[in-house]
Structure formats: structure tokens, C-alpha cells
Amino acid sequence: MHVDILTVLPELLQSPFEHSIMKRAQEKGLLKVQVHQLRKWAVNEYGMVDDYQYGGGAGMVIMCEPLAKAIEELSKDRKYDEIIYMTPDGERLNQKIANGLSLKENILIICGHYKGIDDRIREHYVTREISIGDYVLSGGELAAAVVVDTIGRLIPGVLNDETSALFDSFQDDLLAPPVYTRPVEYKGWKVPDILMSGDHKKIADWRHEQSINRTKERRPDILKD
């Protein structure tokens, strides 16, 4: 998978992709993330990419021209399956969306900043708009990092144990069950006996029951009949 990211603050995206699973995914050649400074396509020699909004109001808006030029130039190198704009009014990111995006080959992500981007870009270039929650960030960079991490870990071969992702929270519309490791007892707190029984069928049943109970308690909105 190839992911291009357009931003006015590429520095914010250095660390998320240089460590842990995302780093290993790129070292394996399974994922490539390229972060592009939007000011490369600025409208003047001063690096201008934003301006005041028509109609008045507080906040600057990223201009149409630099974004359009950037998208068109990057599109010459590859055909994008999705051009995604990170925005609070987009569809809420969930595991189903992540699963679908993980099957794509080429994705372009646009990070808004200031008051957002000229809406003509959304009308004529963007194919999908995604939000990571009902709140506002300073820009789309952190949200873009969340999207890439969420879909990148699902690419076959990225995780050492590929079955791990199949049992994550939300994969089956349930939260993950509680997990434990050594020691068996700490400060009088004991690991449930069933997990050390060696009976894999009973353990699987226990985990499923725990998932249902945890989902009922914490996220009844996602629990299906």
C-alpha cells in the first residue's frame, strides 16, 4: 500500500511512522508513507497556501490552487483508490471502514488546517471524508496518523501474528475480552482459572461471553442482537 499525505506541517507526522508497527511495515515493503509539504505548490515565493475566507469570519482557509496543483501532480505518478479529507464533519472512522481501506493500493490523505480547505477541493477531488471523533483538532495531521495506523496494521504480513488483528475490539462488533499475563497471582489478584485450564473450547467460550458482557456494559450502542 502507498499512502501520500498533504500537509502544511509535515513535522507533526514524522514520529508516528518512524517507530513500532508502522516502521516495521515500511521496512518490510508492505507500506510506504510519503508526507508532502503543501507549500511546495504555494501560490507565491513566500509559501502562501492560505487566505481569508470570502464572506468574512475568523480563521484562514487553505486555498484551492495549491491543493489542486498538488493533487494533480501526485496523481500523475499513481491512480488513487481514495482521496481522503480529514474533517470533523466526515463519516466516523470505525473498524469496518478501516478493513475496507486496508484493501486499497493507493491512498491520498489531505490534512486540513486553520479553518479548513476551500470547499471546491471537496467537491471536485475528494472521494471520501473521514472524522476520528466529534471534536476539533488543530489540524488533520494527527487524525491522518490515526487512519494510517488503523489500516496499516491490517495489511497481511504487517503484524507478526496476523490472527491478532482478527480478535481486536470492533472486528466482530464486540469489545475485546480482558487479557492477563504472568504472574498468576499479584497482591492477591488472581488470573481466572479458566485461562489456565488448557481447554481451548471453554476458553474461547469464556472470552466470547466476556466480550458480550463488556460490550453491554461499556458500548451497548454497537451490540447487535
Describe this structure in words.
The protein has two domains: 2-152, SPOUT methyltransferase, trefoil knot domain (Alpha/beta knot, 3-Layer(aba) Sandwich), CATH 3.40.1280.10; 169-222, Trp Operon Repressor, Chain A (Orthogonal Bundle), CATH 1.10.1270.20. The protein is built from six helices and nine strands, in the order E-H-E-E-E-H-E-H-E-H-E-H-E-E-H. The protein has helices at 20-27, 64-75, 95-101, 119-124, 141-152, 200-218; strands spanning 2-7, 32-37, 50-52, 60-62, 82-92, 106-111, 128-131, 185-186, 189-190. The strands form three sheets. It has a five-stranded parallel β-sheet. The two termini are 36 Å apart.
List keywords for this structure.
Trp Operon Repressor, Chain A, Alpha/beta knot, five-stranded parallel β-sheet, elongated, 2 domains, 9 strands, two-stranded antiparallel sheet, alpha/beta, 225 residues, 6 helices
Shape: elongated
What top-tier CATH class of the largest domain fits best? Alpha Beta
Largest sheet: 5 strands, parallel
* Number of helices, where a helix is a run of at least 4 consecutive DSSP H or I residues: 6
Task: Give the full name of the CATH homologous superfamily of the largest domain.
Answer: SPOUT methyltransferase, trefoil knot domain
**What is the CATH architecture descriptor of the largest domain?**
3-Layer(aba) Sandwich
Which band does the percent of strand residues land in?
A: 15-25%
Class derived from helix and strand content: alpha/beta
Q: Into how many domains do the coordinates divide?
A: 2
Order of neighbouring strands in the sheet with most strands: 2-1-6-5-7
Poorly predicted runs of 5 or more residues? none
The CATH topology of the largest domain corresponds to: Alpha/beta knot
Provide the residue-averaged pLDDT: 94
| SSE pattern | EHEEEHEHEHEHEEH
Radius of gyration: 21 Å
